[in-house]
Amino acid sequence: MMEQNVKKIAWYSLLTLIMVVVIGVIIYTKSDVENPVNLGGRADYKNASSTVYTNVAGQAVVLSPTNEGRGWAVVTNMTATAAYLALNATTSPNTVPILADTAYTILVPASTSYTFNENNRWVGPIIATSSAAVTLRFTEIY
Length: 142
Prior knowledge:
Elements (H helix, E strand, L loop, with lengths): L1 H33 L13 E7 L6 E4 L7 E6 L5 E4 L17 E5 L4 E4 L9 E4 L5 E7 L1
Antiparallel strand pairs: 1-8, 2-7, 3-6, 3-8, 4-5, 4-7
């Protein structure tokens, strides 16, 4: 008789464990679908690009033309010389070669980055220049 009780308890325990596992799987699977994990991006940004540019001292380089779909952009200065960004430049880089141009208003200090995000979104052209040759990485999410 004792043996039968132990077997019944073992079966009930096993069935309870199986039910708990099945219910847990259903609950966690359902919550993942209803509340997906957000890793900081937006679902409509599907593309990204990253390009490295090096300019000649005092001459400008176009980092990006107008991109209406631009969501985020990061300009990383990978050298020891400060760079400057122009946002409203309407001419080609070869006709805007001087550092003193009033359009170059955003400073990107040596070995730092400047980020365009939802707080300062810019979809127009981005042109950079510096007093010495600099290497800039331009990363864009659109």
